[in-house]
Amino acid sequence: MPNDAGAIEPSRILGFSGGSLDRAAAFRHDANWIAARRADPKARLLRLNGDKARIIANQLHFEEAVDAEAVFLGLDVEGNVIFAGEAALPLEDARDLRSLAIEGQLAAQDLATLAQARSLLHWHQRHRFCANCGHETEMKDGGYRRHCPHCTADHFPRTDPVAIIVVRSGDNFLLGRQASWAPGRYSALAGFIEPGETIEEAARREVLEESGIRVGPITYVASQPWPYPSSLMIGLIGEALNQDIVIDKTELEDARWFSRAEVRLMFDERHPQGLGVPPPMAIAHKILETAVTWP
Ligand SMILES: [Zn+2]
User: Within this chain, do residues 164 and 289 fall inside the same structural domain, yes or no?
Assistant: First the structure.
Protein backbone atom coordinates (compact mmCIF):
# COMPACT_ATOMS: atom_id res chain seq x y z
CA MET A 1 0.00 0.00 0.00
CA PRO A 2 1.13 3.61 -0.48
CA ASN A 3 2.63 4.91 2.75
CA ASP A 4 1.84 8.12 4.61
CA ALA A 5 5.39 9.13 5.50
CA GLY A 6 4.95 12.58 3.98
CA ALA A 7 7.62 14.82 2.57
CA ILE A 8 9.73 14.89 5.75
CA GLU A 9 11.20 11.40 5.22
CA PRO A 10 14.53 12.05 3.41
CA SER A 11 14.13 9.07 1.06
CA ARG A 12 10.86 10.51 -0.25
CA ILE A 13 12.48 13.47 -2.02
CA LEU A 14 14.96 11.41 -4.07
CA GLY A 15 14.54 10.40 -7.70
CA PHE A 16 12.67 7.07 -8.26
CA SER A 17 11.10 7.14 -4.77
CA GLY A 18 7.55 8.06 -3.77
CA GLY A 19 5.70 5.40 -5.76
CA SER A 20 1.95 5.69 -5.20
CA LEU A 21 0.65 2.47 -6.78
CA ASP A 22 -1.14 -0.05 -4.57
CA ARG A 23 0.86 -3.20 -5.40
CA ALA A 24 -1.99 -5.42 -4.13
CA ALA A 25 0.42 -8.01 -2.73
CA ALA A 26 -2.46 -9.79 -0.96
CA PHE A 27 -4.28 -10.39 -4.27
CA ARG A 28 -1.68 -10.70 -7.02
CA HIS A 29 -0.81 -14.34 -6.13
CA ASP A 30 -4.35 -15.26 -7.29
CA ALA A 31 -4.12 -16.09 -11.02
CA ASN A 32 -7.88 -15.48 -11.50
CA TRP A 33 -7.62 -12.04 -9.93
CA ILE A 34 -4.67 -11.13 -12.17
CA ALA A 35 -6.49 -12.45 -15.28
CA ALA A 36 -9.52 -10.29 -14.40
CA ARG A 37 -7.26 -7.25 -13.95
CA ARG A 38 -5.69 -7.83 -17.38
CA ALA A 39 -9.17 -7.85 -18.94
CA ASP A 40 -10.37 -4.87 -16.90
CA PRO A 41 -11.45 -1.85 -19.03
CA LYS A 42 -9.24 0.24 -16.74
CA ALA A 43 -6.15 -1.87 -17.48
CA ARG A 44 -3.26 0.24 -18.83
CA LEU A 45 0.06 -0.87 -20.26
CA LEU A 46 3.31 1.03 -19.78
CA ARG A 47 5.64 -0.01 -22.59
CA LEU A 48 9.40 0.16 -21.99
CA ASN A 49 12.31 -0.41 -24.32
CA GLY A 50 15.27 -1.06 -22.03
CA ASP A 51 15.39 1.99 -19.78
CA LYS A 52 13.34 4.13 -22.16
CA ALA A 53 9.63 4.92 -22.11
CA ARG A 54 7.27 7.15 -24.08
CA ILE A 55 6.61 10.48 -22.42
CA ILE A 56 4.03 12.85 -23.87
CA ALA A 57 3.56 16.35 -22.39
CA ASN A 58 5.59 15.32 -19.32
CA GLN A 59 3.30 12.37 -18.61
CA LEU A 60 3.69 8.62 -18.95
CA HIS A 61 2.08 7.26 -22.08
CA PHE A 62 -0.14 4.19 -21.53
CA GLU A 63 -1.52 1.72 -24.06
CA GLU A 64 -4.91 0.07 -23.49
CA ALA A 65 -4.30 -3.53 -24.61
CA VAL A 66 -2.55 -5.62 -21.96
CA ASP A 67 -0.96 -8.86 -23.13
CA ALA A 68 -0.31 -12.02 -21.08
CA GLU A 69 3.42 -11.28 -20.77
CA ALA A 70 2.90 -7.89 -19.11
CA VAL A 71 3.83 -7.64 -15.42
CA PHE A 72 1.44 -6.16 -12.85
CA LEU A 73 2.68 -2.98 -11.18
CA GLY A 74 -0.37 -1.93 -9.16
CA LEU A 75 -3.54 0.12 -8.96
CA ASP A 76 -3.39 3.90 -9.18
CA VAL A 77 -5.55 6.29 -7.15
CA GLU A 78 -8.13 6.47 -9.97
CA GLY A 79 -8.52 2.68 -10.01
CA ASN A 80 -6.54 2.17 -13.23
CA VAL A 81 -4.71 -1.15 -13.29
CA ILE A 82 -1.12 -0.53 -14.33
CA PHE A 83 0.91 -3.18 -16.15
CA ALA A 84 4.32 -2.96 -17.80
CA GLY A 85 5.73 -4.74 -20.83
CA GLU A 86 8.90 -4.76 -22.89
CA ALA A 87 8.63 -3.25 -26.38
CA ALA A 88 10.10 -5.32 -29.18
CA LEU A 89 11.18 -2.22 -31.11
CA PRO A 90 12.59 1.17 -30.11
CA LEU A 91 9.75 3.50 -29.09
CA GLU A 92 8.89 6.79 -30.71
CA ASP A 93 9.29 9.83 -28.40
CA ALA A 94 11.01 7.58 -25.83
CA ARG A 95 13.12 9.10 -23.06
CA ASP A 96 15.62 7.38 -20.82
CA LEU A 97 15.09 7.11 -17.08
CA ARG A 98 18.26 8.86 -16.01
CA SER A 99 17.69 12.06 -17.97
CA LEU A 100 14.03 12.12 -16.89
CA ALA A 101 15.16 11.88 -13.25
CA ILE A 102 17.73 14.67 -13.65
CA GLU A 103 15.29 16.95 -15.51
CA GLY A 104 12.63 16.58 -12.84
CA GLN A 105 9.67 17.39 -15.15
CA LEU A 106 7.91 14.06 -14.60
CA ALA A 107 5.88 13.66 -11.36
CA ALA A 108 7.80 11.77 -8.64
CA GLN A 109 5.30 8.90 -8.50
CA ASP A 110 5.50 8.44 -12.29
CA LEU A 111 9.29 8.27 -12.15
CA ALA A 112 8.94 5.69 -9.35
CA THR A 113 6.52 3.66 -11.51
CA LEU A 114 9.05 3.70 -14.35
CA ALA A 115 11.82 2.54 -12.02
CA GLN A 116 9.64 -0.29 -10.69
CA ALA A 117 8.78 -1.35 -14.26
CA ARG A 118 12.37 -1.15 -15.44
CA SER A 119 13.79 -3.29 -12.60
CA LEU A 120 11.03 -5.90 -12.82
CA LEU A 121 11.12 -6.25 -16.64
CA HIS A 122 14.92 -6.47 -16.61
CA TRP A 123 14.74 -9.31 -14.08
CA HIS A 124 12.23 -11.26 -16.23
CA GLN A 125 14.39 -10.88 -19.34
CA ARG A 126 17.32 -12.51 -17.57
CA HIS A 127 15.50 -15.19 -15.55
CA ARG A 128 13.52 -17.10 -18.12
CA PHE A 129 15.28 -20.32 -17.20
CA CYS A 130 15.55 -22.03 -13.81
CA ALA A 131 18.84 -21.35 -12.01
CA ASN A 132 18.46 -24.73 -10.29
CA CYS A 133 17.74 -27.11 -13.22
CA GLY A 134 17.82 -25.04 -16.42
CA HIS A 135 14.17 -25.67 -17.38
CA GLU A 136 12.06 -22.82 -18.73
CA THR A 137 10.20 -21.00 -15.93
CA GLU A 138 6.69 -19.53 -15.82
CA MET A 139 5.66 -16.09 -14.60
CA LYS A 140 3.46 -16.11 -11.46
CA ASP A 141 1.99 -13.57 -9.00
CA GLY A 142 1.56 -10.98 -11.75
CA GLY A 143 5.33 -11.01 -12.28
CA TYR A 144 6.60 -11.09 -8.69
CA ARG A 145 7.66 -14.74 -8.93
CA ARG A 146 8.87 -17.19 -11.57
CA HIS A 147 8.11 -20.86 -11.01
CA CYS A 148 9.92 -23.88 -12.43
CA PRO A 149 7.41 -26.59 -13.41
CA HIS A 150 10.24 -29.16 -13.63
CA CYS A 151 11.93 -28.93 -10.21
CA THR A 152 9.25 -26.73 -8.50
CA ALA A 153 11.81 -24.07 -7.50
CA ASP A 154 10.45 -20.54 -7.07
CA HIS A 155 12.52 -17.51 -8.08
CA PHE A 156 11.87 -13.98 -6.85
CA PRO A 157 12.84 -10.58 -8.31
CA ARG A 158 16.15 -9.43 -6.90
CA THR A 159 17.10 -6.16 -5.26
CA ASP A 160 20.83 -5.58 -4.82
CA PRO A 161 21.73 -3.47 -1.76
CA VAL A 162 24.53 -0.93 -2.10
CA ALA A 163 26.04 0.97 0.84
CA ILE A 164 26.87 4.58 -0.09
CA ILE A 165 28.62 6.69 2.50
CA VAL A 166 29.93 10.17 3.17
CA VAL A 167 32.75 9.89 5.72
CA ARG A 168 33.57 12.98 7.75
CA SER A 169 36.48 14.00 9.92
CA GLY A 170 35.54 17.13 11.83
CA ASP A 171 34.75 19.72 9.14
CA ASN A 172 36.20 17.65 6.28
CA PHE A 173 34.37 15.20 4.04
CA LEU A 174 35.78 12.26 2.10
CA LEU A 175 34.71 12.10 -1.56
CA GLY A 176 36.10 10.17 -4.48
CA ARG A 177 35.75 9.91 -8.23
CA GLN A 178 35.91 7.16 -10.82
CA ALA A 179 37.76 7.78 -14.08
CA SER A 180 34.57 7.14 -16.10
CA TRP A 181 32.59 9.96 -14.45
CA ALA A 182 32.01 13.44 -15.87
CA PRO A 183 35.14 15.60 -15.42
CA GLY A 184 35.35 17.22 -11.97
CA ARG A 185 32.51 15.13 -10.47
CA TYR A 186 33.15 13.87 -6.91
CA SER A 187 30.78 11.70 -4.91
CA ALA A 188 30.29 9.50 -1.86
CA LEU A 189 32.09 6.14 -1.83
CA ALA A 190 29.85 3.13 -2.54
CA GLY A 191 29.90 -0.62 -2.91
CA PHE A 192 27.66 -3.68 -3.07
CA ILE A 193 26.85 -5.36 0.22
CA GLU A 194 28.19 -8.92 0.08
CA PRO A 195 26.66 -12.11 1.51
CA GLY A 196 27.15 -12.30 5.28
CA GLU A 197 27.74 -8.56 5.80
CA THR A 198 25.74 -5.97 7.69
CA ILE A 199 25.20 -2.60 5.99
CA GLU A 200 27.76 -1.01 8.34
CA GLU A 201 30.36 -3.75 7.78
CA ALA A 202 30.05 -3.41 4.00
CA ALA A 203 30.39 0.38 4.19
CA ARG A 204 33.48 0.15 6.43
CA ARG A 205 35.09 -2.47 4.15
CA GLU A 206 34.47 -0.45 0.97
CA VAL A 207 35.85 2.78 2.42
CA LEU A 208 38.93 1.03 3.82
CA GLU A 209 39.59 -0.80 0.52
CA GLU A 210 39.13 2.27 -1.67
CA SER A 211 40.67 5.00 0.47
CA GLY A 212 42.54 3.49 3.45
CA ILE A 213 40.21 5.33 5.83
CA ARG A 214 38.81 3.42 8.82
CA VAL A 215 35.22 4.30 9.75
CA GLY A 216 33.80 4.39 13.29
CA PRO A 217 30.14 5.14 14.09
CA ILE A 218 27.74 5.10 11.13
CA THR A 219 24.31 6.76 10.85
CA TYR A 220 21.61 5.89 8.32
CA VAL A 221 20.23 8.85 6.33
CA ALA A 222 18.03 7.67 3.45
CA SER A 223 17.59 5.02 0.76
CA GLN A 224 16.90 5.18 -2.97
CA PRO A 225 15.77 2.60 -5.53
CA TRP A 226 18.32 2.73 -8.35
CA PRO A 227 16.97 0.96 -11.45
CA TYR A 228 20.31 0.17 -13.16
CA PRO A 229 19.09 -2.47 -13.10
CA SER A 230 17.83 -3.21 -9.58
CA SER A 231 19.89 -1.69 -6.79
CA LEU A 232 18.79 -0.20 -3.52
CA MET A 233 21.17 2.56 -2.46
CA ILE A 234 21.47 2.81 1.33
CA GLY A 235 22.81 6.25 2.25
CA LEU A 236 25.01 6.66 5.33
CA ILE A 237 27.23 9.13 7.15
CA GLY A 238 30.29 7.78 8.97
CA GLU A 239 32.93 9.20 11.31
CA ALA A 240 36.57 8.75 10.20
CA LEU A 241 39.10 7.21 12.58
CA ASN A 242 42.17 8.33 10.56
CA GLN A 243 42.96 10.98 7.91
CA ASP A 244 45.73 9.51 5.74
CA ILE A 245 44.17 8.50 2.42
CA VAL A 246 45.61 5.58 0.41
CA ILE A 247 43.72 5.36 -2.90
CA ASP A 248 42.93 2.02 -4.56
CA LYS A 249 43.63 3.09 -8.16
CA THR A 250 41.77 0.10 -9.61
CA GLU A 251 38.52 1.49 -8.09
CA LEU A 252 39.05 5.24 -7.89
CA GLU A 253 40.88 7.85 -9.92
CA ASP A 254 41.02 10.13 -6.89
CA ALA A 255 39.79 10.49 -3.30
CA ARG A 256 40.37 13.45 -1.04
CA TRP A 257 39.10 15.47 1.90
CA PHE A 258 36.93 18.47 1.06
CA SER A 259 36.31 21.22 3.63
CA ARG A 260 32.75 22.22 4.49
CA ALA A 261 33.26 25.56 2.66
CA GLU A 262 34.57 23.75 -0.42
CA VAL A 263 31.57 21.36 -0.49
CA ARG A 264 29.20 24.35 -0.28
CA LEU A 265 30.95 25.89 -3.32
CA MET A 266 30.51 22.57 -5.16
CA PHE A 267 26.77 22.57 -4.40
CA ASP A 268 26.56 26.13 -5.75
CA GLU A 269 28.64 25.22 -8.84
CA ARG A 270 31.19 27.86 -7.83
CA HIS A 271 34.19 25.67 -6.95
CA PRO A 272 37.40 27.43 -8.20
CA GLN A 273 38.64 24.24 -9.93
CA GLY A 274 35.20 23.52 -11.39
CA LEU A 275 34.63 20.48 -9.15
CA GLY A 276 31.04 19.39 -8.54
CA VAL A 277 28.71 16.96 -6.80
CA PRO A 278 25.96 14.64 -8.17
CA PRO A 279 22.56 16.18 -9.06
CA PRO A 280 19.81 16.62 -6.40
CA MET A 281 17.91 13.51 -7.59
CA ALA A 282 20.82 11.29 -6.45
CA ILE A 283 21.18 10.01 -2.91
CA ALA A 284 24.87 11.04 -2.81
CA HIS A 285 23.71 14.66 -3.07
CA LYS A 286 21.27 14.20 -0.17
CA ILE A 287 23.69 12.50 2.23
CA LEU A 288 26.44 15.02 1.49
CA GLU A 289 23.97 17.88 2.04
CA THR A 290 22.94 16.28 5.35
CA ALA A 291 26.56 15.72 6.40
CA VAL A 292 27.62 19.35 5.80
CA THR A 293 24.63 20.76 7.69
CA TRP A 294 25.21 18.56 10.75
CA PRO A 295 26.87 20.35 13.69
ZN1 LIG B 1 13.99 -25.93 -12.08
Answer: yes
User: Rounded to an integer, what distance in angstroms lies between the CA atom of residue 197 and that of residue 164?
Assistant: 14
Q: Is residue 84 part of a domain?
A: yes
Number of domains in the chain: 2
Q: Which of 126, 145, 168 finishes a domain?
A: 126
Ligand 1 center to residue 203 CA distance, Å? 35
Q: What is the CA radius of gyration of the chain?
A: 21
CA of 197 to the centre of ligand 1 (A): 28
Does 137 reside within a domain?
no
Query: What's the 128 CA to ligand 1 centre distance in angstroms?
Result: 11
Q: At what angle do helices 283-293 and 260-267 cross, to 10 degrees?
A: 140
Range of the domain at 178: 160-293
| CATH code: domain of residue 213 | 3.90.79.10
Tens-digit pLDDT string for the chain (295 aa): 345 565 578 888 889 999 999 999 999 999 999 999 999 999 999 999 999 999 999 999 999 989 999 999 999 999 999 999 999 888 888 999 999 999 989 999 999 999 999 999 999 999 999 999 999 999 999 999 999 999 999 999 999 999 999 999 999 999 999 999 999 999 999 999 999 999 999 999 999 999 999 999 999 999 999 999 999 999 999 999 999 999 999 999 999 999 999 999 999 999 999 999 999 999 999 999 999 998 7
Distance of alpha carbon 293 from alpha carbon 24, whole angstroms: 39
- How many whole angstroms from 275 Cα to the centroid of ligand 1? 51
CA of 146 from ligand 1 middle (Å) equals 10
Spatial separation of the C-alpha atoms in residues 44 and 250, rounded to whole Å: 46
Cα of 72 to ligand 1 centre, how many Å?
Answer: 23
Could you tell me the distance, in angstroms and rounded to a whole number, from the CA of residue 22 to the centre of ligand 1? 31
